[in-house]
Design a protein that fits this description.
By secondary structure, the protein is an alpha/beta fold. It is 38% helix and 18% strand. The radius of gyration is 31 Å and the shape is globular.
Length: 698
């Protein structure tokens, strides 16, 4: 796609307007053509209900019967009475604020010219009283003289609605877009899709698709235009991922692993539980990758409590068995600390040297850790972004595990890989999604999925309730000898956010539960304080733990049977699901109670979803629908999931086509050297090479 023509070639688009277009990322005619509508309004009168029309919008084409001016105290009112070909009449109203000085010009002057007797006019507005059977009054938002041929851009059709900036109207934008479609910028638009794929999928050509996305003749043309443009976006992404995966596979890592069982067997013997069949399967997949001469690049996804951490630990121990170092990078200090505590507990009897490195690590301790990483003394290191700092050097790092991978961008993951020339990479996510979506989202990775929960996990009853009823449940359960969590979203009160503060609520709850032992946990506590609180709760020295979402990960207390989440509407789906997973780990029935205040429609939907299902795959998918893939997957900074036409969920069939066709394309022409693939390759380079710094498409 070339940048053809300047915007100021368009009639009426001067320097001031050009600056407004720049705010939208539009600097050329080509940019303008590829600025797609955010939605549409079906402004065809009496059209059947569809996704683009609304009962609140009235579209009417009629002949002017008469007009009327009504002076009022604070406003001036102009009315026009119209009749259509079917004899239906409507009354249209406009308002102008009265100026207390004298009007130099008639404020309704231009309108009177358009509403002369017997003139035909399109009016678009809101009906004043829809409950009135005889209601025929509308407040007009837009009108267009039917005699003007350009009125067909705005009325009587599927009308595009664009996301704009202040100073631009959709009426203006449609006029500019219509003019741009008449220029050579459209005529010279390259067809980047290979002809064979166009024919195979029966897709529109590029110029036809652009005309159809902006000014579709009907629903069928709009759907066809969207399908073609979505397919193009998906195919470009899928192909970039595919090339990246192929290039990874041809690398020789130059080292190998042998399953010696010197550490793995003692670990399995000391765990106190059996691996699920799913865990065994995934561990075998990872071990095959590690034993391969090619670097591993694998995603491990699994629901809350499915046992991802112990699977990752097995891989790290295999590295340690072979004299290599392994690193686990977590997005937050709290999560890193939880992993470190878990590893120390599991590795206590194995003699494996572990350490943790975060921004909170004291200078003296950090110096010692850096020295022991460089001389190879430390076998397993857990940390945050601190692991990718320049002063961190490894003796023989061979395996990197990235937890909560969606919180890291492409470049951050690359920085860890740059610590050594060759590296096996295992990324983990607790936001599981169906395989087709995973292949699109993580197209350069092999995907492993934990599909089972460990035996003995109890189904969790999830419901909404008032705070009073939630606390009654807590009292009942704790009286039986069980334990409970009460989670608040913030530590301190904020002027902007009216969530309850843990520190204040802790004092109040002492009076609510005077008969029980309470403790508080939040991220501003020192590591020693947090460890002490968690140890006391695990040992049942505490009955109720009042906490922030710090307990979302890492705390596993089988006796805990109640999770109360205050201000549940303020949490994302993934967080709610993670918090719920803190209970239901023992033999007793467990409960998750969501306390909400003034939840909006989207927040209410999140809460309803959590109540309806415990299926992490369904929750993960819906979370992405609500929040968008870029936000969930941490990709906005690198740009690879910013789609204009495609929707991963609505267009899943098209996504499947793109993945299938990508595989066929790269099998036939891995380097895209064939003449029919050159324009597609150029577009691929333009989109992705500069963003990633990780892929060679030259």
């Amino acid at each position: 796609m070339t940048s053809t023509g300047t915007l100021q070639r368009l009639k009426g688009l001067g320097p001031a307007k050009a600056k407004l277009f720049e705010k939208l990322g539009i600097s050329t005619l080509t940019d303008l053509l590829h600025y797609y509508p955010r939605t549409y309004q079906d402004r065809r009168p009496d059209e059947k209900p569809n996704d683009y029309n609304s009962n609140s919008l009235t579209v009417f084409k009629g002949r002017v019967l008469r007009t009327q001016e009504i002076p009022a105290r604070s406003v001036l009112i102009f009315k026009a009475f119209l009749e259509n070909e079917q004899g239906r009449q409507i009354e249209c109203t406009w308002f102008k604020k009265r100026s207390f000085g004298r009007f130099r010009f008639d404020p309704f002057g231009p309108m009177k010219k358009d509403f002369k007797l017997n003139a035909e006019v399109w009016v678009i507005g809101r009906q004043e009283d829809r409950n009135n059977f005889f209601g025929n009054k509308i407040t007009v938002e837009e009108y267009y003289p039917a005699a003007d041929p350009l009125s067909a851009l705005h009325a009587g059709r599927l009308t595009p609605i664009y996301s704009l900036t202040e100073g631009l109207t959709n009426k203006q934008f449609r006029l500019f877009m219509h003019e741009a479609l008449q220029t050579e910028a459209l005529q010279t638009e390259p067809e980047i899709l290979p002809p064979a794929l166009l024919a195979k999928r029966k897709l529109l050509g590029s110029t036809q698709a652009l005309r159809g996305i902006h000014f579709p003749a009907g629903l069928a043309e709009l759907d066809a235009a969207k399908a073609r443009l979505a397919y193009e976006e998906f195919l470009l992404l899928a192909t970039a991922w595919g090339i990246k995966r192929t290039q990874t596979k041809i690398l020789e890592k130059g080292y190998s692993y042998e399953i010696k069982r010197t550490l793995l067997t003692p670990l399995r013997q000391n765990l106190g539980f059996q691996f699920t069949n799913s865990q065994k399967h995934v561990i075998n997949e990872i071990f095959r990758d590690l034993q391969s001469p090619r670097p591993m690049n694998r995603l491990l996804q699994g629901d809350v409590g499915s046992g991802k951490t112990v699977v990752a630990l097995c891989a790290m121990l295999l590295a340690a068995e072979n004299g290599y170092q392994a690193a686990l990078m977590a997005p937050t200090e709290i999560l890193a600390e939880q992993h470190f505590i878990t590893f120390e507990k599991m590795l206590k009897a194995l003699g494996v040297k572990t350490a943790i490195l975060t921004s909170s690590t004291k200078a003296a301790a950090k110096r010692k850790i850096l020295k022991e990483l460089q001389d190879g003394t430390i076998q397993i290191i857990v940390g945050t972004h601190s692991l990718i700092q320049e002063d961190v050097k490894f003796a023989n790092l061979r395996l990197a595990v990235i937890d909560e991978q969606h919180r890291f961008g492409v470049r951050q993951r690359a920085q860890l890989k740059e610590k050594t020339a060759k590296l096996d990479l295992l990324t983990m996510t607790a936001t599981p999604i169906p395989r087709t979506l995973a292949l699109a989202f993580y197209g350069d990775l092999e995907v492993s999925t934990l599909t089972e929960l460990p035996p003995g996990r109890q189904p969790i009853q999830t419901e909404t309730a008032t705070e009073k009823l939630a606390f009654m449940r807590v009292t009942d359960e704790v009286a039986k000898g069980r334990q409970a969590y009460i989670v608040y979203p913030l530590i301190e009160e904020s002027e902007k956010i009216s969530a309850k503060a843990v520190s204040e609520e802790f004092e109040k709850l002492k009076t609510v539960f005077p008969q029980f032992r309470l403790a508080m946990l939040h991220g501003q506590m020192t590591q020693e304080e947090k460890e002490s609180v968690m140890a006391d709760f695990a040992a049942h020295k505490t009955d109720i733990l009042i906490a922030t979402p710090v307990i979302e990960v890492g705390i596993d207390v089988k006796n805990a049977t109640v999770m109360v989440i205050e201000n549940a509407e303020r949490f994302g789906l993934a967080s709610l699901h993670q918090l719920r997973g803190r209970v239901g780990r023992g033999e007793h029935a467990s409960y998750c109670i969501l306390v909400t205040e003034h939840a909006g429609s989207i927040a209410k939907e999140r809460v309803d979803i959590i109540c309806r299902t415990c299926d992490g795959f369904k929750i993960g998918e819906r979370d992405m629908q609500l929040r968008g893939p870029g936000e969930i997957l941490g990709t906005r900074q690198s740009g690879e999931l910013e789609f204009k036409a495609g929707d991963f969920f609505k267009d899943r069939d098209i996504l499947t086509w793109a993945i299938e066709d990508r595989d066929e394309l790269l099998t036939q022409d891995p380097a895209l050297l064939q003449p029919a693939h050159q324009l597609f390759k150029q577009r691929l380079i333009q989109l992705y090479e500069k963003n990633w710094h990780l892929i060679d498409l030259s």
